[in-house]
# Entry
Amino acid sequence: MSGAVTAEVADEHGLTREEWAKIVALLGRPPTLEELGVFAVMWSEHCSYKSSRAFLRQLPTRGARVLQGPGENAGAVDIGGGLAAVFKIESHNHPSFVEPFQGAATGVGGILRDVFTMGARPIANLDSLRFGRLEHPRTPYLVKGVVAGIGHYGNAIGVATVGGELYFDPGYDHNILVNAFTLGIAPADRLFRARAAGAGNPVIYVGARTGRDGIHGASLLASAALDATSEEKRPAVQVGDPFTEKLLLEACLELMQTDDIVAIQDMGAAGLTSSSLEMAGRGGMGMVLELDRVPLREEGMTPYEILLSESQERMLLVAKAGREAAVQAVFARWDLEAAVVGRLTDDGVFRGRWRGAEVCALPVAALTEAAPVYRRPAEEPSRLEELQRLDPAEIPEPADYGQTLVRLLESPNLCAREWVYRQYDQLVGGNTVVRPGGDAAVVRIEGTRRALALTVDCNSRYCRLDPYLGAVLAVVEAARNLVAVGARPLAVSDCLNYGNPEKPDVMWEFQQGVQGIRDACVALETPVVSGNVSFYNETEGRNIPPTPTIAMVGLLEDVEAHLTPWWRAEGDVIALLGRTREELGGSEYLAVVHGLVRGAPPWIDLEAEKRLHRVCLAAAEERLLRSLHDVSEGGLAVALAECSFGAPGLGVRVDLEQGMRTDALLFGESQSRMLLSLRRRHLGRLRDLARREDVPLTILGEVRGRSLVIGDAIDLPLEATRERWRRALAVYLAARVR
Amino acid sequence: MRWGVVVFPGSNDDRDALRAAERVLGDEAVALWHKDRTLGGADCVVLPGGFSYGDYLRCGALAKFSPIMDAVARHAREGGLVLGICNGFQILCEAGLLPGALIANRSLSFVCDFVTVRVETTDTFFTHGCRAGEVLELPIKHGEGCYVADEGTLAALEHEQRVVFRYTDRAGRPTPEANPNGALRNIAGVCNAGRNVIGLMPHPEHAVERLTGSVDGLRLFRSAQSWVTRGAAAAPARSAPG
# Structure
């Protein structure tokens, strides 16, 4: 073995002195440098989930349709017809802040690999993006880089980007969030897993060669806070090559038609180390790796670097003994390398050999099962009580509601996202039924009448004001967006973005968030099948608002029954399902118009929410509705405008019953509401459905004309208003280019 | 008829072209591997959209060296039908089978949207089923779709009515606003002198089902279908753009 290392070297690897002591105790000796590197990445927050694992167990992960829950490369649910939907969301926050283009691009590349590793062909991507204020000098640069990077990878590999979200909040000025989601389809009985089996079976490395990029990405970049020197960590950001990944995708899917694969795992964070250890760990096996057989991009790489490189577009698989040549032939057809780099053993030890000498010999269980689990101190921050206080009497009502609506429609969080999604291929694959811009995307399942709906949601302002309720509302919002296109919610993948878990208030926020997701997912019967935790979203002591991003997938039995938000015909009746309360807390209106982030987030009754879903889905199935739209940020007035911004260019004329402040009525964000239009003759049947579920139904008015007429308060020309809404983001970004 | 869709490393819309030919048109369609040297008896060869070889050097610049391209060139010389869509158009230009070149969009950004194009000539296998001057709604999705050629080439293309599609507004006016990428003279697609090789940036294979946005591409594929089925001799005479 090469020379042993000291506690000081462990410090540089981001390990604590307690962790160092534990390593020495586990091994009965100090580790070699290679071994220390392996421990550092495997025990990093990013790979080990040491601060979150104990709490994630609370999440509901089982259900009749769940084929694969958390713990594999991605989750999978049964969608009928012998098919599975395979999906996962994952963060790539710090790399994207340090190097926006490549950071975001490799985020997309990584999540795609997670999904096709399971044997699924990726069919759709979503991206949840959060940036600081548009006024922040760095924000336009980051927005442009991230969007271009996502497009660069997704477009080139040929997977449609069908939706996502984009928020601006000063809380992300110094730590943006880039969460990438991929959905794939696989035969339900041919899901591939990362569970090694069969001593003597060969370990085969496929894909791109290994270089020096991304070393310590997982441990030092993803598992530590950002600071003024973060830009110097650029070498820890990987460089993406979507072309190689496209070849890898096609070659892997081709190989998966055979029975030659025992286990397969992508090389993501911590590269060769984590992929080999995770496969061995799950199967209770050992593994010998001949590190000098790893295909290298450059000469002179050390075994330490080979073990820790995070070069992209690589996979590790365990094949059946004797099938090496067959595996290599498939990859050769796609001009890819496939090198036999090791074999499985049954001694439970992970051995790395370099030029005949053993440079590491570690018990696999020590790295996986014996990884530290922390129950860090958690404490409710005192600031919340003050933040949640909101005295409506101190908020003056606007003098001109028309101008206030325009101001909201032009605001960064409510204006059109067309500037973003025009840069993404939304169509490749030929199954995109509802493109970006609706409540949720709808993608047909090839060769069937069914379709999947997908969305990603989180209002982090709500989470800042109430981390528990905010998480509940994120789940509810995602489910409601699926229902709005006529889909039944199936399952969740969550991306839990939080600050530094070593701070008790952050840890408390995290625990509250997990409990919120648990309660909402239990109530809505949407198990969590995959996900990711991203801690240390902190820069110089400032933590991001709690941001539990919820990606949710739903099923439509008949794709032809899908719904969109946009009015379809003059004269249709416009109605609201659900109750509007006098609620202004945490609203976009308060933030944009009054500069206030305070109050309690809107009230939610999960049972009432479920009743609303039942009414909407029944009405959709009976084809009663012409349009359906969730009422969320910006409230009823913004929702009415959004429904009018569709291709037909149809306006509204609605009357509003008062009984509360006009601003709360128009811009309040009461939950469990849906805005719909329908032919007058279907109104009676809809009333019956609503009455049966005890959901209030209010007739607001009708689709009419070329203007937005809302009570006595608002009368705006449709076309000019739509143009301001549509162009606002491009105008903001153009004005702030340096 | 029989369609052959070439699969280059990095082709993405090959599956969509195959689906359009097979499932929607009900024709025979075969995937042709870029390392093949024959076209599998295809009546019409499609070079599909995507990012062949990653488009790292220049769009289409490497694909033209694929073994199958010799067979494609031979097929074109012999009057066989060749259709290049998006990246396929770029490859045909790089291979010298069509004049001009596709460069980066004026916006310097990738753009995905539904646009309207006017059918400029019905004297091709792909448009003879349309009315001259008809406006079709087709999607585009490209970063390098700005068609350029020298003035002499452009003049010849216009004179010989070899501009097949032009970006226009819904009323058929070739305005600057209707031009999504800055293409000279709003050119969206052209054909060769023999009129048997067509390249276009819009994606007709993504406009064959109402459910996914538009059926206007179907008219174009049906044109090719009836052209082949009836034989080129039965094709209508030249007609000027309306």
Summary: Chain A has a mean pLDDT of 94. The CA atoms of residues 651 and 705 of chain A lie 5 Å apart. The longest helix of chain A spans residues 504-524.
